[in-house]
Records
---
Amino acid sequence: MDNPEIIEFAVSFISSITNDLNESLYSQPTANLNVIWKRDDSFNARAIPKSRITEPPVHIIELTYGLVIQLYNDIDEYCSYIENKSDQKTFDILFKDHSGDTSILPCHLEPEDYRKNMYIGALTWVYFHELAHLNQEHVYILNKFIDTKHHSMYEEFNVNKSEPLKDKEAAIHHVLELAADFEAIQSCLRELIRHFEGDELTKSIGLFVSSISCAIYKLHNPTELSLSSDIEGSHPPSIVRLEQILPQIWESLDLYEKANIIDTKLNRKDLVHICDRSATSACFFWFRKKQITTEKMRNFIFVGTINRPGGKLYLQTIIKTWDVIKPEIVKNSRMLDELNTLNFTETLRDLVLEC
Ligand SMILES: [Zn+2]
């Protein structure tokens, strides 16, 4: 697709989801969800609440043309990289113990179609992430917990870094980003399950993981990765976000499979392997594209945040912060779904909080 086609496709797709939401979650007479398109080249998205917490929701999601164009072009380039098989020998070694069909891109779809499927995955994830900030009233939560009124929106990528946030404010920002990611992933998985079943669902899971890994790796700078209990800035490092998302995907799908909600016949190990193949291939794509040096690979590849220097301390602060604010999120969410609410497993808590 060329740029005008990409914009037309994205606007049409996002409009249809927004219309559906205006007939369901935003169906009260004065409630409204609006999408504003910014005609600039920046890679950015915003979530802007316009209603008070006590009023029916009036919410705006702002997306730039630059974001939707770059998301597609990265996916297109990633697919060409996989099709060219330039790193196939490395993948064959890395994935040699994986069972079944280990191809990363599906044979049953035309290249144009799997590009579009992946693009829908990435667009949906960005959109649902913004929607989660609004649904969980994160601006209200933020102002309440840091006792201010100066936050009026959530901005994703062009956040002013001249004075990075610190301490409690930074920790709350980070945990709310993870909470928005969590809800967005649950919403995306539900959409996948609604549209696909059996083998098609299996292939779609892989494409979805590739697409969001592509989007997340775009923003990952391994030289800036530094984790500790002293959290700084407005967003978690991109690789930390991916390291929370991947287990969420395989654990959720494993639960759906065990509850007979899906019928992929995949066990937990198969699901881990699909996520691993898709995310690793996106990692290698960006490793080549960004010309990352091999000594930075340890910071570049996903290894699990708990295994990183300072990772356990970082997660301790995140979990403790979440435990304080979660009751307010539950109280104020526009549509509360326990499955959509960020959750740290007891196993992770034991590992992180033991020291
Ligand atoms: Zn966000």
---
Amino acid sequence: MPWFKKIGIAGAAVLFSWNPEYSLDIAQVDEEHSKLIQMMKKLELADTRRDRVKIVKGVIGEIEEYCRVHFSNEEDLMRRSGYPQLEAHRQAHVQFRKKVEDLKLFAAFNAAEIHQILLEWLVEHILKTDRDYVPYVRKYLAEHPEQVISTTAP
Ligand SMILES: [Fe+2]
């Protein structure tokens, strides 16, 4: 199945910011990552708005909340598939959530820069840290097809 079909209807809205290189070929995870990228993209547009600080705080709050859900789903998949580096990965998630929280203090600054900081972390995390669990999770999902979940974004 082509990657763009796996990211769901909501994914169609992020075709411009989603790069096929980010795909881990795990539908649930790809969909959640594309949703995060889509949320982060809203920051890019905030700088032109009069109520930008409010928008930036709101978007960071949304990202914070969705990271909680996504990281928990990812950690659950890693745990079920017996991924040996779960603890180190969990730590990377904890640090990122702390970074997102800290960025709220900078909401009055350049939103495009905040967008860049978040996007760079996420992309690097997907391409390096997440990529490492892929063989374990794919094997687990192939052996437990009933566990394949598609989280269609609201
Ligand atoms: Fe991760």
